[in-house]
Specification:
The chain is α+β, with helices and mostly antiparallel strands. Helix content is 44%, strand content 17%. It has seven helices and six strands. A six-stranded mixed beta sheet has the order 3-4-5-2-1-6. The radius of gyration is 21 Å and the shape is globular. The termini are far apart.
Length: 188
């Protein structure tokens, strides 16, 4: 394990030197700042499999979903997708949905950990890792703080949530719930 740490440290030194000398390397991001949203990494640039995972988690009402771009900080993965569920069943349902949707496109996780206890389910796909927490475990482990130097990625679910919230009052407005149509069907 120490040997892997040395490789990681060397890679970070090389990237730091490249940034200091102004060279533009793939994966080097000189504008990385603490807990910011990147203008350089957008949802369109994300791996299609990660976007499938985001959509699957959103479908199961995942809470506070964020993606962190770790390419400039870590060599073991490119992205973390961190989210929460409000209870054990929801945490497991989110993890199940992600695994099921990615299986449909031929991706299987390298490993899944913590599923039975469902406090922190880790689903490892190599180039990205999904972390599904219950609320208490997410506050305790606070991966967002641990990886605060990582660049946050704007997810399409952020835009979808805004649209759903803004259109919700219209669909639930009085008289617009479809009851008029059902009354017509009941009459001869």
């Amino acid at each position: 394990m120490k040997q892997n740490s040395t490789v990681k440290e060397q890679a970070l030194r090389i990237e730091s030197n490249a940034e200091a000398h102004g060279s533009e390397e793939v994966g080097a991001n000189p504008s990385v700042s603490t807990a910011t949203t990147s203008d350089n990494v957008r949802a369109e640039e994300l791996d299609k499999h990660l976007l499938i995972a985001v959509e699957a988690a959103s479908d199961k009402k995942a809470i506070d979903m964020i993606a962190l771009d770790l390419r400039s900080l870590a060599s073991f993965t490119d992205y973390f997708l961190i989210t929460s569920g409000s209870n054990t069943r929801q945490v497991q349902a989110i993890a199940d949905a992600v695994v099921d949707q990615l299986k449909k496109v031929g991706r299987r996780p390298a490993r899944v950990e913590g599923y039975n206890s469902a406090e922190w389910v880790l689903v490892d796909y190599g180039d990205f890792i999904i972390h599904v927490f219950d609320d208490k475990a997410r506050r305790f482990y606070d991966l967002e703080r641990l990886w605060r130097e990582a660049t946050r990625v704007k997810l399409p679910s952020d835009e979808i949530a805004t649209v759903v919230v803004s259109s919700e009052p219209e669909t639930n407005a009085p008289g617009n719930n479809g009851s008029e149509g059902s009354e017509e069907n009941e009459q001869p």
